[in-house]
Amino acid sequence: MINTIRVYNDIGTSVLCVHNTIQLFHHFFPCANVFKISSSEIKTNKWIESTDLLVIPGGEDLPYLDKLQIDGIELIKSFVFNGGKFLGICAGAYFSSSYIKFFLTSQLVIEGERYLKFYEGNAIGPVYDGYQPNSESGAHIVKIMYKNTYAYVYYNGGCYFDDNNNKVEGTHFALYEDGKKCGYTRRYGKGKILITGFHFEFDEQCCSHLLSKLSYDDFESRRENLVRYIFSLLSDC
């Protein structure tokens, strides 16, 4: 059961991503308690026993690293290992991987090791052209392939997952239309991890400016089916 959800909210998180993530849980888990949590609160470890799911939403990965640091990261790992659930979306997926390569331009690359290592491979992005920090100029509606079907979702700067020729534990459950891996889940100790390079928390109202070739109903019905599938994977523990 997922009764108490905490959504990371600190320097680097996108206001829109945090808001939409909280709204998503209010819609799909109407009886759950949903709270924001800061880096300083995570470092206290007082949240662990009262939390079922921790979410690291979209934003910018480097400030997450700077604010949480090793002590916060180790508490997150302990939380999941001892039975907690973890969801990382877009920047949260970069942050959850072992190594990232993020190409802002051909001359400007954010690259380096990360320390959660829930996904023991590389998170590489952006997958689609046009990304600009704090801008909608590179936002797209993209097609996600999963479980012999597909959905449309919001995308802005997210990653794909590269196993780097390693035998990685867990399951890649979703692909971008070009075949790159973009949804990953695994068990970690007694807990469960799920990360995505795309945003599934943005509904049709948030995406209305990008839906010129899609009907609202087609976008939303397919997105909601994907969301239900994602939550079924996350709850399977």
TrEMBL record:
Record GO terms (molecular function): glutaminase activity
SUPFAM superfamilies to which the protein is assigned, alphabetical: Class I glutamine amidotransferase-like
Stretch forming the signal peptide: none
Gene Ontology CC terms, in alphabetical order: cytosol; glutaminase complex
Keywords: Glutamine amidotransferase
GO biological process, one term: pyridoxal phosphate biosynthetic process
InterPro entries: Biotin-prot_ligase_N (IPR019197), Class_I_gatase-like (IPR029062), PdxT/SNO (IPR002161), UCP016642 (IPR015834)
Keyword Cell membrane found: no
Residue ranges constituting the Biotin-protein ligase N-terminal domain according to the UniProt record: 5-209
Record-given protein name: Biotin-protein ligase N-terminal domain-containing protein
Organism: Entamoeba dispar (strain ATCC PRA-260 / SAW760)
Organismal lineage: Eukaryota, Amoebozoa, Evosea, Archamoebae, Mastigamoebida
